[in-house]
Amino acid sequence: MRTKRYAALFLAAALALSLAGCGINEDKNKDKDGDMTIQPAQLTEEETALLDLLAINTENYRIFDFRLKENSGVQSMRLAVYELREGEWAPVSQADRAFTDSEGRIAFTVGRVTDGVTTAVQSASGSGSDTYAPIPEDDVSGMAFATSKLSGPASIEFDQEIPLMLQVATAKSEFTTYDVNYFGMPRELAKHGYEHVYAIAVTFRASSVSGNAQAAPAAPSPEPSPAG
């Protein structure tokens, strides 16, 4: 049953990504020597209409457009899923891929991370996807899940992780939805004692896949958390 679920998730994500070409290139005259950014994708009317025709609920996915400078020197990309453990981010799964294009799209499924996450990347040179299934030791069926996503443009700097999603799972009757910027303050998140906290982050690198060092999750901050 779970295998079929993952296949369906991948199919829908791949379908959404297959429509990306128009959206990525709709502003062909934009100065490509400008800022390097990643932000929520703006789907075209054609893309949206096709998704509606196929009854694909875009609320179940998040799609991001990213743009790098021409000849920026990018050589690889890492997409990572983390779980907060003892005040630090522990990688659940990491996917490194060689990458040299100046623009593209990233998509992932939005639901309970404990049910599995499918991430996908598309650019001019190709596409690919990965599926992860964190298996918690405790029963999460009765827990509430609260998810936040990157909602606006974020600057891309090489070797700096950019959080795309943050999710809290807890049996507590009261809890807070946290802005993705809390990713940089894991110890602050840990103070609340939630049973599970997950994050998805992307890193663009100027080094090759073989030359990548182990990812360093965001360093804890002693400062108060930003307003969410």
Verbal overview:
Residues 1-15, 19-24 and 218-228 have low confidence and may be disordered. The strands form two sheets. The chain has a six-stranded antiparallel β-sheet. A five-stranded antiparallel β-sheet has the order 4-3-11-10-8. The chain contains four helices and eleven strands, in the order H-H-E-H-E-E-E-E-E-E-E-E-E-H-E. The chain is an alpha+beta fold and 228 residues long. 16% of the residues lie in helices and 35% in strands. The longest helix is centred in the first third of the chain and has 17 residues, at 2-18. The chain has one domain.
Topology:
Blueprint: H1 2-18, H2 20-24, E1 37-40, H3 45-53, E2 61-67, E3 76-85, E4 88-98, E5 103-109, E6 117-123, E7 126-132, E8 144-149, E9 154-155, E10 162-170, H4 186-190, E11 196-205
Antiparallel strand pairs: 1-2, 1-9, 2-5, 3-4, 3-11, 5-6, 6-7, 8-10, 10-11
